[in-house]
C-alpha cells in the first residue's frame, strides 16, 4: 500500500493548536513537508522551529481570501505546488439560537464554511494549473464534525455548517473528479482541544461524556490513520466520502 507521504507538501489551516498542530507533527513523521497556516503566528513559528526544514509557517486568516492566496504563494515559492490540503481551521459559538448574537453566526459561517471553501478551492485551482489531471496526486481533506448529524447540542449554526461542509466535500469531489483531485471529509467526535475551552471539566461536560457509549472523549490520535490514508496515494479511488471518527459517540 502506498501510505507514505514522502514527497508531499501539505497545507494545514488552523495549525496553531489542537488538531492542526497535531496533524502537522503527524504528517512530518509520515514524510511530508507542511505549511502551517493560522492567525497566531507566534505559535506556528514555534511549531515550524520544532519541525525543522520540513515546515514553513505562514500567517493566514481563512476569512480573508487575499491572505489565503498570499499563503499559497509563499508555500509554492518555498516548497513548490501544494498537493495536499487540510482545511481544518474552525471556531465555535455556542448558546441557544434565540440568544446567539448575529455576529457570532456570521463568524461561524465565515470561518467554518466560507473560509474552508476558499481554502479548498485555492488549492484546487493551483493543482489544476499544475496538471494534476495526469498525476492524480491532489488530496483535499475537509474537517467536518459529528455535530453535522446531531441536534440539541447548543450549537445549531455550527452543526448546520458542518453538515454543509460534508455536502460541500461531495460537490467539490464531483467538480474535480477528472482533475486528479480527491476531496473527502472527516467528521471527528468530541476531542479535548482549545475549541471546547474547559467545558468538559464542568458538570455539564462530565454529564455529556458520561452519556457517550464508551464514557470518554475521543482520543486525538484516533484521526491519525484515517488522515494519513486520505492524504496518501493509497486513497486515489476514494473521493466524495464522509468518514466519521468519533469512538462511537454519535451512535
Ligand atoms: P482549536 O481551537 O484548537 O483550533 C482551531 C484552529 O483554527 C486554531 O489553530 C485557529 O488558529 C484556527 N482558526 C480559527 N479561525 C481562523 C481563521 N480565521 N483563519 C485561520 N485559522 C483560524 O480547535 P480544534 O483543533 O478542535 O478544531 C479544529 C477543527 O476541528 C475545527 O474545524 C473544528 O470545528 C473541528 N472539530 C473539532 C472537534 C473537537 O471536539 N475538538 C470535533 C469535531 C470537529 P488561530 O486562532 O491562530 O488563527
How do the SSEs run, as a string of H and E? EHEHEHEHHEHEHHE
Quote the distance from N terminus to C terminus. 31 Å
Largest sheet data: 7 strands, parallel
- Please bin the fraction of helical residues: 40-55%
What is the helix tally?
8
The radius of gyration over CA amounts to: 17 Å
- The domain tally reads 1
List of distinct ligands in this structure: NADPH dihydro-nicotinamide-adenine-dinucleotide phosphate
CATH superfamily, please? NAD(P)-binding Rossmann-like Domain
Tell me, what is the CATH class? Alpha Beta
Please identify the structural class as seen in this structure.
alpha/beta
Shape: globular
The number of E-state strands comes to: 7
CATH topology: Rossmann fold
Mean pLDDT: 97
Give the low-pLDDT segments. Answer: none
Oligomer state equals single chain
Describe the structure.
This protein has one domain (9-245): NAD(P)-binding Rossmann-like Domain (Rossmann fold). Helix 3 (65-79) runs parallel beside helix 4 (102-129) and helix 4 (102-129) packs parallel to helix 6 (156-175). 43% of the residues lie in helices and 15% in strands. Strands 3-2-1-4-5-6-7 form a 7-stranded parallel beta sheet, sandwiched between helices. It contains 8 helices and 7 strands, in the order E-H-E-H-E-H-E-H-H-E-H-E-H-H-E. The protein is of the alpha/beta class and 251 residues long. It has helices at residues 18-29, 41-51, 65-79, 102-129, 132-135, 156-175, 203-211, 224-231; strands spanning 9-13, 33-38, 55-59, 84-87, 138-143, 181-188, 242-245. The mean pLDDT is 97. Bound molecules: NADPH dihydro-nicotinamide-adenine-dinucleotide phosphate (NDP).
